[in-house]
Design a protein that fits this description.
Number of strands: 14
Shape: globular
CATH superfamily of the largest domain: Nitrogenase molybdenum iron protein domain
Strand order of the largest sheet: 1-11-10-9-12-13
Distance between the termini: 80 Å
CATH class of the largest domain: Alpha Beta
Strand content: 15-25%
Number of domains: 3
Length: about 425
């Protein structure tokens, strides 16, 4: 890996490189996605099935687009008992963590008859998109479905691509069943996003769409936003390891590569105060790349976006980490909990040598759907809050309104909204 002295110039260069990975930079795809979305919106199932034939080489129609109970039962036979047990352990951890995020409705009263409150209710339906082209992602299923389930969403609709034989990965189906998905449909790509956003004859319209996908999925989510809510426009994965001389070079190198193997646009960054650690990590990275199966992907990722920055001191290293605002941040310092207090921007923080990033991907409980491309400065991980609505309630007694009605009328008239003022005034005309 490249070892670079941390300066304002090198940090700025890194931030510019990271932004190149944003979906906003893939304008060449937008016209194609617009056409797909518009076609599905207008023609429903016919367009959806046509795109499934074209892109997935599968014949899907109204009779088989929905995954059946029999298909799910068959999937269970193809998943080992050991993996099923692990999935169930992960579900327990994820449910426990997200249950702590639940918010309650509340109400407050005053002696003069003012009653104010907030009612918390789940959205009616959520659409979960799960990729399925190159690999199975049961962890994606769990992380997107369980928060919705905990929030109390009544209908959780999942779409995922099928293969040419019309089959969905068994692990995906099992994870969906275990997590509490209401219905599963064989649909992928931008056409699936459009189907969830607008509804077709076979796939119901939802209120919110969550889940990762390729650039076509990302652009489609952006295009339908407003017709439905979405979680975010996720970019390629990234990890930043913040480390001092106490860190294990071997472990740091392994953790950097755990993200680099995602795809060629993934970003693995080490920011450290130790030149010795930097050199040792670089050596270990080379050793691991030489023996790990996804070496080509990892090497391209490292060539494009892999960097080791050596800072003069920990304060500079922390400032750089906050400016980068990574999706995943590992803090491997002498006192990671103290260092954590100085971190302002990170999707998820992993503290100490034994809190490797994949722990969060699969098992610990916190959500692995995280803000990318610096958006941790203002976005949060997916959670229960993404699947609820807050409604305010207001009740004033006659006495309470009488005390303030002239104030409200004055405020309204200052904005030249005389009908607003009148709506309050008419209630007390006889008293003036």
């Amino acid at each position: 890996m490249r070892i670079v002295k941390l300066t304002q110039e090198t940090k700025t260069s890194l931030l510019k490189d990271l932004l190149k990975r944003s979906p906003d930079d893939y304008g060449t795809y937008e016209d194609t996605v617009k056409e797909i979305v518009a076609n599905v919106h207008k023609n429903g199932d016919a367009a959806l099935f046509s795109y499934t034939e074209k892109f997935d080489h599968a014949h899907v129609d109204a009779s088989n687009v929905k995954v059946t109970d029999a298909e799910i039962e068959e999937a269970y036979k193809e998943v080992s008992p050991e993996l099923l047990a692990v999935i169930r352990k992960a579900i327990k951890n994820i449910e426990e963590f997200h249950s702590l995020q639940k918010k309650n409705s509340w109400i407050t009263t005053k002696e003069n008859g003012i009653v104010l409150g907030q009612r918390v209710t789940p959205i009616e339906s959520a659409g979960v998109y799960v990729p399925g082209g190159k690999a199975a992602y049961p962890s994606t299923v769990l992380m997107n479905v369980i928060p919705a389930h905990v929030a109390g969403v009544k209908n959780i609709i999942m779409t995922t691509p099928c293969n040419a034989e019309g089959k969905v990965y068994p692990m995906t189906l099992v994870a969906a069943k275990e997590a509490g998905v209401t219905a599963i449909y064989k649909a992928g790509g931008a056409q699936a996003i459009a189907a969830l956003a607008y509804g077709t004859e076979s796939i119901p319209k939802v209120d919110k769409i969550v889940g990762p996908g390729n650039i076509f999925v990302a652009i489609a989510k952006r295009l339908v936003y407003g017709h439905v809510s979405i979680d975010s426009i996720a970019g390629p994965s990234e990890v930043l390891v913040l480390a001092d001389e106490t860190a294990s070079a071997k472990c740091v190198a392994a953790d950097l590569l755990s993200q680099a193997e995602h795809d060629e646009l993934a970003c693995a960054t080490l920011v450290t105060t130790s030149e010795k650690l930097a050199e040792e990590v670089s050596e270990w990275v080379d050793k691991f790349v030489a023996v790990l199966p996804r070496a080509d992907i990892m090497q391209k990722s490292l060539d494009n976006f892999g960097n080791i920055f050596v800072a003069d001191n920990m304060a500079d290293a922390i400032d750089a980490a906050n400016d980068i605002a990574p999706e995943h941040m590992e803090i491997v310092t002498a006192n990671p909990f103290e260092t954590m207090t100085k971190i302002k921007n990170a999707g998820a923080m992993f503290l100490g040598t034994y809190s490797s990033e994949p722990l969060g991907d699969y098992f610990a409980g916190p959500n692995h759907v995280l803000p990318t491309n610096g958006t941790a400065r203002f976005f949060s991980p997916l959670g229960v809050d993404d699947f609820i609505k807050r409604s305010s309630s207001i009740s004033y007694s006659e006495e309470a309104l009488r005390e303030v009605h002239k104030d409200i009328e004055l405020f309204a008239e200052s904005e030249h909204l005389t009908a607003h003022a009148n709506a309050i005034r008419v209630r007390f005309e006889d008293e003036q």
